Amino acid sequence: MSQERGSCAEEPIQVHGVVGDSAASHNEQSKGTVTSQAQSPHTPQTQIGSNDDGVSKRTTIWTLLDYCKPQRCRYDPRHPPQFTLATNILLGFAGTFTVANLYYPQPILNLIADEFHVSYERSSLVATLSQAGYAVGLLFVCPLGDKVPRRPFVLLLVCITATVWLGLCLTTSFDVFIALSFVCGVGTVTPQIMLPLVGDLAPPEKRAASLSVVVSGLAMGLLIARVLSGIVANYTSWRNIYWLAFGAQYTVLILLFFFLPDYPAKDSELRYFRLLTDIVKMVVTEPLLLQACLSGFLLSAAFTSFWTTLTFLLASPPYSFSSLEIGLFAFIGIAVIALGPLWSRLITDRFVPLFSVVLGLSFEFVGIVVGTFIGKFTLAGPIVQAITMDTGANFAHTANRSNVYNLDPKARNRVNTAYMVFCFAGQLTGTAVGNRLYAQGGWVWSGGCNIAFIGAAILICFARGPRESGWLGWHGGLEYQSDESSIWAIAV
Question: Which parts of this chain are annotated as the region Disordered (predicted)?
Answer without folding.
Answer: 1-54
